Amino acid sequence: MLIIDGKTGEVDRLAFFKLPDELRAKNEHEVQMVALIKWGFKRVGTYVNEETNQQTGEAFVGTADMTLIDVMDRKVIERRTFEGQNPAGGLTRDGDFKSERPILAVVEYLRGLPRR
Fold first, then answer.
1. Are 94 and 86 in contact (CB under 8 A)?
2. pTM (2 decimals)?
3. Distance between terminal CA atoms of the chain?
4. Residue 109 backbone dihedrals phi, psi, to 5 degrees
5. 109: left (phi over 0), alpha (psi -120 to 50) or beta
6. 84 near 63, Cβ under 8 Å?
7. DSSP category for residue 28
8. Which end of the chain has less neighbouring CB within 10 Å, N or C?
9. What is the pLDDT at residue 116?
10. In the chain, which stretches have pLDDT less than 70?
11. Judging by beta carbons within 10 Å of its beta carbon (0-12, 13-18, 19+), is residue 87 exposed, middle or buried?
12. Which residues on neighbouring strands pair with residue 107, listed in sequence order?
């Protein structure tokens, strides 16, 4: 399996190397499946100063839009969206805050797929 970053078109080194050895393709001949991932963020809230009631920043959760492709059959198997943990709460945070990418959720899902 390969995990490809949808923005760069290259192997997503952060996610790919979190796969177990038995799932990672060692060369092009071992690639049976490709997970094409478009990483992003979704706005989930606003931080507000308690005293002034002024907005101080926005909260974003990391997202991964994954398209799973069977290389042998040349077809899309599935499309799925993953979300990371919500960013820290609280009203008085200054500036925008983004949670981490949901890399581990993606990897756990891929680990659970049936194998040929």
1. no
2. 0.84
3. 12
4. -65, -50
5. alpha
6. yes
7. G
8. C
9. 63
10. 88-93, 116
11. buried
12. none
CA 61 to chain centre: 10
Distance from C-alpha of 26 to C-alpha of 83, rounded to nearest angstrom? 28
Nearest one of 58, 38, 60 to 47, comparing CA atoms: 58
Taken as a whole, the chain contains a residue count of 116
% of the chain exceeding 90 in pLDDT: 69
Nearest to 4 by CA among 26, 23, 12: 12
* Contact (CB, 8 A) for 108 and 70: no
Helices (H), strands (E): how many in the chain?
2, 5
Distance CA 13, CA 20 (A): 13
Question: What does the alpha-carbon distance between residue 66 and residue 83 come to, in Å, rounded to a whole number?
Answer: 11
Contact 75, 30 (CB under 8 A): no
Question: Among the residues of 1-116, which ranges form H helices?
Answer: 13-16, 103-111
